[in-house]
Amino acid sequence: MASTPSYLVIHTRDPLAGGRDGGVDPLVEALAAGAPTTVVLAQNAVLAARRGSGAAESVARLASSARVLADDFSLHERGIRADELVGGVVPAAMEEVVDLLMAGGCRAIWR
Amino acid sequence: MTATLTVTLMEPPYETGTTTTAFRLIDAALRAGHTVKVFAYEGAVNLTMAEQAPHPNPVKGTSVEEESHPTTKDWVAALLRAHPGRLDWVNCGLCVDERGAGNWIEGARRGGPKDFAQWVLESDQCLVVPAR
Questions:
Q1: What is the ipTM of this complex?
Q2: CB 3.0 to 4.6 Å from B90: which of A71, A84, B111, B121, for a disulfide?
Q3: Does residue A96 form part of some domain?
Q4: Which domain range does residue A45 map to?
Q5: How far is residue A1's CA from residue A13's CA, in Å, rounded to a whole number?
């Protein structure tokens, strides 16, 4: 029997850079509405998860419909502590990301 | 349970943090015991170029040794050494020819999109890491 599908979206872009409006990726919203979805914020995408960032409200909304993880290495590189993150966003090591990626039924997208 | 992961890389070296993130993911997958197959496409074929060399930083006045500049070909070589038989690295032949990037480190090999298609069918998971 096939595993229940879930989605893993690895987001690497700052949602406020390059003229973007800081809103939640519509693709992620659509995925999260239909199946268990985990979003991993990595590289400059973790900047959006700081409380007080222009995208914080969108990230908090995303965290209400999807599991949102922030790559601990990317946080460390940018000097962002766990207690500075928007509620619902949890730091995660790459080992955890790999476990999610290799779980049965996971469909992975790198954005 | 260990499984097989296929990763397609497109980002050339030293452009964005994507290369580092992808290498960290590949490293973590290998350390977890999985088999990883990397299809280097487009600019990613330059990741294994043997001529890559670390450099000093004349602005800061630091030497090659002080800079300890990492090269992607050394990262790939280290992963191949650390996980013999569990990392397969294929450089897209057409992409290599376009770029004159045919002199690569030991362990990588030439292939084509057919390899990628076959891996997708055979692997437990596939991740496409696009370029910007």
A1: 0.91
A2: B111
A3: yes
A4: 6-110
A5: 36
